[in-house]
Amino acid sequence: MTALALPSIENKIQELCAAIADEPEILAAREQAEAFLADEKAVGLYRELMTLGRSLEERDRNGDSISQTEADRFEQLQDQAESHAGIRGFNDAQQVLQGIANMVNAFVSKTLEKGKVPTNDEVFGQGGCGSGCGCHS
């Protein structure tokens, strides 16, 4: 029997998803992400930065040399991305959305492990989870 075949769990998942979807911070993050995706120039810059970064990282791991021109190009792209409001907004939105996903996953995983609803301390350890998880304002 799968979890979704259990109506009580399916109903609670639907309620959780509705609460997440209606949360103002989540709505704002989604709007930021969508605004970024609608900006072709920003997406192009971001894609170029990510592609070059992955390529340089892979080459470095393989022991291949990276020219100063390539390193300079990467730094130039990185500076442009860091100063682009749309890209900064997208990165902020990703942190919020990923933080919520991580928090939900951590609580569900700990619930399955312990067989009871866990406390924040049980999920994130003493002192809370730190920053960026999305579980606090």
Write a structural description.
With 137 residues, the protein is mostly helical. The chain has a single domain (11-124), classed as Up-down Bundle (YheA-like fold). 76% of the residues lie in helices and 0% in strands. It has six helices and no strands. The chain has helices at residues 7-22, 24-38, 40-61, 68-83, 85-114, 120-124. Helix 2 crosses helix 5 and helix 3 (40-61) packs antiparallel against helix 4. The longest helix has 30 residues, at 85-114. The two termini are 38 Å apart. The model has no long low-confidence stretch (mean pLDDT 90).
The SSE order reads HHHHHH
- What is the overall pLDDT average? 90
Estimate the global geometry from the Cα principal axes.
Answer: elongated
Cα Rg: 20 Å
How many distinct helices? 6
In whole angstroms, the N-to-C terminal distance is: 38 Å
CATH class: Mainly Alpha
Main beta sheet: strand number and arrangement? none
CATH topology grouping: YheA-like fold
Low-confidence stretches: none
How many strand elements?
A: 0
Structural class: mainly alpha
SS strand fraction: under 5%
Fraction in helix: over 70%
Named at the architecture level, the CATH assignment is Up-down Bundle
Count of distinct structural domains? 1
SSE layout and pairings?
Elements: H1 7-22, H2 24-38, H3 40-61, H4 68-83, H5 85-114, H6 120-124
Helix pairs in contact: 2-5, 3-4
